[in-house]
Amino acid sequence: MSGTSRALGQILPIAMAALLGTAAPLVLAQAEAVPSQALVLPSGPAENTRITEAYARLVARDAWFWAWPMVNMYNRRLAYAKAPEQGLIGGTLPIAPHNRLTMLSDYIKPDQRSIACPNQDVVYGAGYLALNDSPVVIQIPDFGKRFWVIQLSDLRTESINGLGVMYGTKPGFYLVVGPNWQGTVPKGITRVIRTQSNAAFVGPRVFQDDTPQDRQAVQEVIQGINVYPVAEYDGTMKRQDWRKLPVFPKRDDARGETRWVRPDVFFDQLPAVLDLAPAVAGEAARYAQVLAVIAAAQKNPELKQAMIDEAEKADRELIDPLLQFRNWGIELPHHWSTITNGAHFGTDYFTRTAVAKSNILVNAPNETRYFYQDLDAAGMRLNGATAYTVTFAKGQLPPVKGFWSLTAYDSAHFFVPNPLNRYSLGTKNQDLKTNADGSLTFYVQAESPGADKESNWLPAPKGADFSLFLRAYWPDDAITKGLWTPPAIEKRAVDTSS
């Protein structure tokens, strides 16, 4: 029987069955059994293929957007690699050599510009891991009843593993290993965490009340947090007083965040970045495409300059607008917005880049839910020339198992100095006053609302745009299921412009 006849013999019964409305499972099975030669197609242009400038610009623009968070993390990682020892940049920001950690000993200071949207509810720590050099041990002390979470994420800003009170994590020693590690697990290790790449970020967050007593009490706990190469592991808890650290010079005094992603070096760095962040399902062609264009640009200066030019345009047109919360996120009542896939972005490149531009390194949704606000109840831009109130009805405080806070930021998402040195209000504040009906009102304005209301005053920048940011750490079901959202930001009948 010829190949043509055999094919017709398989197709005709199927066609007849379709016309008659009957099934033909046996015939279908026979059709599927016909052997075929699978085609293996290239995932990018063939080597040495000439490409047009317009195509190179297209690929450059696209890559600038989806790879922006990874290059951002890569350059932070490079900065940490240059640290001579554990210390503080300008006395404000923790920095440490790879496979080490540095903790702050109090709230982050308001003048730091390394990372946008910091909060003053927790004691932060930070470190970058190079797991190709060595596995590392993360040392977890006993936090008692204090809220804590340790973020472990990759260059994509994806969460790698859950460590925190919401996971029931026990005190002990946690070994973090790279994807290809085949060594022996030392005795006494509580659990092994295997990553998908050799580059990772580790960032503890430990809650602290805004009182002198708790500032002292938290020291005993955080001195037990540590990260070090496995060769230094001996089964004993290593303690360090984080109040005694060297101070390194500040990088810059920019009003906005340190510029971690630069068009002039972006495409030179991208191959190394993609090597440290292997493609996930569906990304192989994307990776191959941009790498092929970069290879072509390395041989053609004019092509490379065109790509840099396109990256500069994309930065202005695509990335810069994402600093503003009102331009992205899931819309909620009263002009609030949120995200539900923080640190689990997958191939949601838009949300990942929006978060990286405006408030990089968010926690996973079950660890923290974030609510963003640029506008008042009438949809007008929040501005310190106007006074506002935020009133939580009785029984309607953010439902959390951890803590919550409302923070005010300037238009660049940093703190603005104020007479109280106060940048957030919430669980940490022990002297908040409730109203007669049991509700809680915050006064968000540039000038004091009066001595009787000052405990509930959240200072805003005078005469300038600002944003509000509500954090709900270890959110309850009412938040995770979308049953609770923040109240409206209402104008007060007071004008602070005078």
UniProtKB/TrEMBL annotation:
Keyword annotations from UniProtKB, A to Z: Signal
Residue intervals of the DUF1254 domain: 99-229
Domain DUF1214: 368-476
Pfam families assigned: DUF1214 (PF06742), DUF1254 (PF06863)
Signal peptide: 1-29
UniProt name for this protein: DUF1254 domain-containing protein
Biological source species: Pseudomonas umsongensis
